[in-house]
From TrEMBL:
One example of a Gene Ontology biological process annotation: vacuolar proton-transporting V-type ATPase complex assembly
Region (Disordered): 75-97
GO CC, alphabetical: cytoplasmic vesicle; endoplasmic reticulum membrane
The keyword Transport is annotated on this UniProt entry: no
Higher taxonomy: Eukaryota, Fungi, Dikarya, Basidiomycota, Agaricomycotina
Keywords of this entry: Cytoplasmic vesicle, Endoplasmic reticulum, Membrane, Transmembrane, Transmembrane helix
Presence of the UniProt keyword Endoplasmic reticulum in the record: yes
Segments passing through the bilayer: 18-39, 51-73
A Pfam family matched in the record: VMA21
Name of the protein described by the UniProt record: Vacuolar ATPase assembly integral membrane protein VMA21
Length: 97
């Protein structure tokens, strides 16, 4: 029974970490583009709404790419823990040989 409780704690902690990341990226996806639009419209582009909209689109894409990269890295680490290997660099440098 003790090992089942320990396994449940690990799953709960993992689920909490995923939930926290989801909340952070969701808030970032809502706040960052809107904020960048208004800030860039007022201070950077001096009222040019086209350039401000492009700035907001770039900000939204940065958040999405960061979420994808975070997910891929986390998945690779999880797969490495299951197989017993820790992911290493794909290419060795000459110094490491």
């Amino acid at each position: 029974m003790g090992s089942q409780a320990a396994g449940a704690k690990t799953i709960d902690q993992g689920a909490q970490g995923v939930l926290v990341k989801l909340i952070i990226f969701s808030l970032s996806l809502g706040i960052l583009p809107i904020g960048s639009y208004f800030i860039s419209n007022k201070y950077i582009w001096k009222g040019n709404s086209t350039y401000s909209a492009i700035t907001a689109i770039v900000a939204a894409n940065i958040v999405l790419v960061a979420y994808i990269v975070t997910s891929v890295v986390e998945d690779q680490q999880e797969q490495g823990e299951k197989t017993g290997k820790v992911p290493t660099k794909a290419v060795e440098s000459r110094k490491e040989r």
